[in-house]
Structure formats: C-alpha cells, structure tokens
Fold:
Amino acid sequence: MKPQRAALFAIAAAALFALLACGPLSFGDTKSQAATLAARQVETAVATIQAGKPTLAPTAAAQKATKTPSAAASGACQWTGTWSTTWGDMQLVQKGKEVTGTYETDSGKLKGTVSGSTFSGTWSEAPDYTAPDNAGDVKFTMSADCKSFTGLWRYGSEGDWSEWDGERK
Structure:
C-alpha cells in the first residue's frame, strides 16, 4: 500500500474509532460530539499528509475520547429519583444494577436491570399485574447528561413498541 493510501486508511479508521469511542450515538448530544471529534481527526490527518508527514498515530483528541466516555455510557448515571414521564410521575430506586419503581398510571410497577446507559425490564399495572394486558417489556436509555431518558414499552414480550420518555424532577 502506498504511504498516502495507508494514511488515508488510517484517517478513516481513526474517524470511526473516534465515533465509537464517544459511546452511544442514539440520544443527546453525544452524536454531535462524536461527529465533531471525527471531523477534527480527518482535518488533522489530511493536513499532516499535505505537509508530507503522514502518521498513523491517533491524535490527542482521540486518545482523550477513549478515556472520558459520557456519564451515561459508563453507567455513572443513577436511575434513583423522581421522574416526570409519559405515564405520570415515576419514582425509581437503583441498588447496584437492579432498579425497582412505581408510576402513577394504574398503580404501575417497574423492575429490571441496568447495563451502561440502558434500563431493561418489565412494567405491570393493576388490576392483576400480569401480561399480556397489564404487563410487558420496557427499555429506557439515559441521556448523556443524566437528566432525561427516552424509552419504549410494549404489551407482553411481543408486538409493537410505544414511546415512554421522562425527565428528572
């Protein structure tokens, strides 16, 4: 491979690495941070090649990105607290990776586990708290600033998902 072609390949790899190093790309401002970091990687590498000094080493910005993931991506956000949600106020308690809680609609209950920035579990409601009519799956993803989440719920364990979002009170 010619040196410039190798350097261009390194640029693409570094840009992809920068995007992946920033954590989830679905919510909050993490996507724009990742795009900005990737653009800087490409600009720096192109300038280096134009100067006749191609390098395969990652820039300081890329190295920093791997050391400072968002709080949500690293699992540093806590779900404990009161949330204003699509289905009314919700109170959650997190102990380790386990989360339990309640919400206003039909004396609703939640339970599940946290992995990174995602809470996955089940919801259930009165009168009988059983699927498929009064219980099902739920999945929430915490924002990078830990102040809100976007989520999905469904009846039972199959079928279409609906939105369930919330903001920390």
Remarks:
- The chain has four helices and nine strands.
- Residues 21-31, 54-59, 61-68 have pLDDT under 50 and may be disordered.
- The beta strands are 81-85, 88-95, 98-103, 108-115, 118-124, 135-142, 148-153, 162-163, 166-168.
